[in-house]
Amino acid sequence: MDLRFSESDLELVARAFCTPGDGPRGWRLNAIAHRLSLVDGFDRFLARPALHGVLRYEHQERTALRVLREMHGRAILADEVGLGKTIEAGLILKEYAIRGLVRCALVLVPSSLREQWHEEMTAKFSLPFHVLRSPDDWGRHPFVIASIDMAKRERHRHAAQGRTWDLVIVDEAHRLKSDLSLNWRFVAGLSKKYMLLLTATPVQNNMDELFNLVSLLVPGQLNTYDRFLERYVASPDRRVPARVPELRQRLRDVMVRNRRGIAFTLPPRRVHGLPVRLSPAERVLYDDVSDFVRDAYWTSSGRLPFTAKLTLMVLQREIGSSTFAVAETLARMARSPMFREGERERLEALSHDAHAIQSNVKADRLMTFLESMDEKVLVFTQYVRTLGYLRGVLEGRGHRVAAYHGSLPPAAKERAVQAFREDHGIFLSTEAGGEGRNLQFARTVVNYDLPWNPLRIEQRIGRVHRLGQDREVHVVNIWAEETVEAFLMELLDRKIHMFELVVGELDLILGNLGEKRSFEEILLDIWALRAAEERRSALARLGASLEDARSRYERIKERNEEILGEAEAAPA
Amino acid sequence: MTDVDVRSFVAEALVELGADVSDGDSVVWVRAPERLQSALRSPENFPLAFDPDHAGEFGADLIAPGSFVLERLLSLAMERGRWDSVRVSATPKDWVSRVLADVGLQGIGDSDLSPMELRDSLYFLFTFRLTFLSDEKREAFHAVVVSAEEGIAWPADLSATEVVTGDPVAFAEPPKVKEGYEIARAALREITGRETRAFRERSLRLLEEEVRRIFRYCDETMAELREADPSKAAEIGRSIEAQRGRHLTEALERFEPRATAALCAVRAIVAPTASLEWRGAGGRRILVDAWTKRVRGLICDRCHADDSPWSCAGGELLCARCTVTQAASARPRGRPRSGTPRRDTRIAGGSGRSPRGSTERPRAASGRRRGP
Questions:
Q1: What pTM, to 2 d.p., does this model score?
Q2: Model confidence pLDDT, tens digit, residues B156-200
Q3: What is the pLDDT of residue B372?
Q4: Cβ of B220 and A101 within 8 Å?
Q5: Hey, is the C-beta of A409 within 8 angstroms of any chain B C-beta?
Q6: Is A36 in contact with B246 (Cβ distance < 8 A)?
Q7: Does B216 touch chain A (CB under 8 A)?
Q8: Which of A326, A315, A271 is nearest to A460 (CA)?
Q9: Contact A151, A210 (CB under 8 A)
């Protein structure tokens, strides 16, 4: 390897001194600019000062440096859930990008996580990612986030495989467990320099899956398939590992697994349920709205259009939040041509009833709870109108409330967080509340209403129950009896003990459900059943599936612990 | 990125590009002229933050590695200032004896030295960016001084040389940069030779390991398939071959070592240079200039190195190493003169100070004998 000199040198040599230069300061700044932009190997993190709202954790930086220095950019990030695999992948990507080693990257994720990845990569790492929408996007954008299911389709596959990626990241990489699957073949067919596979559970069923994942990354690391079976698999069904210490030793070259007990521990969560009985007027309104939803859902015109289904879902969710949230929606629907004359009249009447209700029982229950508290509390609601109502009630009782919602300008959001940190006792927020902000100085979260998407509930709790929290966290759920939210509590709390799970585990459990519908759709489909008995049995079936999914997850977790337990980065 | 102060660079670069810069509490406010606005894609007035905690305040962009504004400013600064000239004046009057004292020759009295000539000489300072690329990237900044008249080059201490000020030189005709550049190029090759070879060896070792593993995996997998089901082996074999080809291409992409150097800028410096005859130590003609303050023409009587500092006792001129050896041992060991034939370039050794940009001393420098 000879030192090659740039061809542009001669051009500079020929031009130099033919015209006046830029003076001594220009010359000096040129030298400083070159020195400032030098890249000096992976001796230290360059990316750190460029990150926004990313707390610094030693295990994440250690992992990233190990992948950069020792694994040469090809690794399985197999941290236990909640330890920040996404952040580790972002750190590695950002380091490569700053050093000019990655100029294009592809992130393959389950479709439900596309937006979350996009938000993290743009907001925290300032990386110009684009979420794939059409086949043309492949050629237009150097940084692409795509759902693996979309990317592997015929019309996308050729474009994705036809270019060379500097880095490919696959989230939930246990979906690449079979080398016969389209997912595995699609990823294997990508040309890539560096690759990161993210999964907390590389082994789902048998040892083949581990072999397939590792071979995708570093072929031969676990030997050939036959030799792998011979050496590291003890049973004919390929579920029992053999020579585990030796296997772990081999995995250490390609896998980093941080475990909670080693990297850090999170304090426990305590869950408190505050069920309420609706006032007579609220009860009537709730039942009437539900009846309207059921009638519209089972429309005679056949399959319900997606937009109509969505509208009904919003309506049912809003009435679960507050009468104030639903009142305006009812009025707007009463004017919508989407509904027939009779339906519009019904909606008009419902809107009138909703406007007539001046207070909600849930708010009284919240007040009682807050008056028993003497520390900072985060109160979450899904709707700005509920937030407005609660703010009035709380401030009317002398509480100092920092209100936070998505439509506030950035400076006002900043002020709200600041006020809560300093002297306000209540942070009243919509879903946008404090996303990516450090609110761990508080430890109590009140779910004034419950989003039907359990991951949203988990995100709320995650605002305080995360790395950096050192006190026990309290989750307070308020819901009304005989509502969808009561259903939800039955499923999430009693069946899968969701509130005791660690952030990230719920996603894996729901992934085991084997459902194509979203959780919200499943709930609406059950709630829309006309007969109460039918609803109860459908709920029981869903509950049983969730229990199975959780047990399956527990088994997988134990299996991974048994096989990979020691394949972690150096102890903290 | 290095530890050079980013904040002061940004402020100075903005001013150089015609902006007004004022420090606020947590952000720096910039008022940019039109041309700079379009270069930075910014409005006329905008704030910049240097601390992530203040990013976004008043809409301030964060200045950090990889951030748009910093990258643009770096690139604008690198496009400018690519050549410059300066005339160095010789002060104080006794600069020659001071320089000699600095390199350890303070014992030389006036009677031992006879000035032969004092004239202005032309020097070039070439700055280079060196990049090693394989699965990682390592860069270094090197500065090389070339004496146009002597036709020799040596690594420069950039921190000392970049601050040189003086009037610009009005050349009757542009200086001959090309010859100087060729000398600097050859010098840089030699200066960075060991580092380049070490990088190449490391990368090739990794590449070899990777290639071996890929071949072993693919060959053995094919053999296993043939044994298990010979009828399907050909079909699957083709697929494994394709897979092997792709893995090999990826391995090459990742580990193939590349070393490149690019000329960043050149500075022509006219500096007083004294030519002296030193009657001591067997009589030598030495050259010294008022800019780099490097003394040329001295060679260690024992090992023939040409590095300062020196010591002179009993008519013998010794480099620092031989001085130490002499002090430590009753029988000082001499080192035979290098028999390696010189190529087209003469390269002088590094100065005694550690050059900021150059991390190595030239390997061959110590074994060289060179006359003035």
A1: 0.70
A2: 987 766 666 778 888 888 898 999 999 999 999 999 999 999 999
A3: 29
A4: no
A5: no
A6: no
A7: yes
A8: A271
A9: no
Chain A residues within 8 A of B86 when measuring between CB atoms = 24
Cβ of residue A32 closer than 8 Å to a chain B Cβ: yes
Across the strands, what pairs with A145? A107, A131
CB contact under 8 A, A5 and B178: no
Inter-axis angle of helices A225-232 and A207-217, nearest 10: 130
Output the pLDDT for position B212.
94
Pairing of strands B316-319, B310-313: antiparallel
Residues A506-559 have pLDDT tens digits of: 777 877 777 778 888 899 999 999 899 999 999 999 999 998 988 888 888 888
Q: Does the ipTM surpass 0.85? A: no
Query: What are the extents of the domains in chain B?
Result: 3-80, 213-259
The per-type count for chain A, helices as H runs and strands as E runs, is: 25, 14
For residue B83, the cross-strand partners are: B266
What is the Cα–Cα distance from B50 to A138, expressed in whole angstroms? 35
Axis crossing angle, helix A323-334 with helix A280-297, rounded to the nearest 10: 40
For A82, the 3-state DSSP assignment is coil
Greatest pairwise CA separation for chain A in angstroms: 92
With cut-offs at 50, 70 and 90, classify the pLDDT of residue A361. Answer: very high
Nearest residue on chain A to B163, alpha-carbon basis? A28
A34 CA to chain B: closest CA distance, Å? 7
Residue-level pLDDT at B242: 87
- pLDDT above 70: percentage of residues in chain A: 94
Nearest to A36 among B2, B83, B135 (CB): B2
With a CB-CB cutoff of 8 Å, which residues 331-350 of chain A face chain B?
Answer: none
From B77, B84, B246, residue closest to A23, measured CB to CB: B84
CA-based nearest residue to B129, from A43, A8, A98, A23 = A8
Sheet holding A255-256, edge to edge: A130-131, A143-147, A105-109, A164-170, A191-198, A74-77, A255-256
B1 and A4 in contact by Cβ < 8 A?
no
| B188 lies within 8 A of chain A by CB | yes
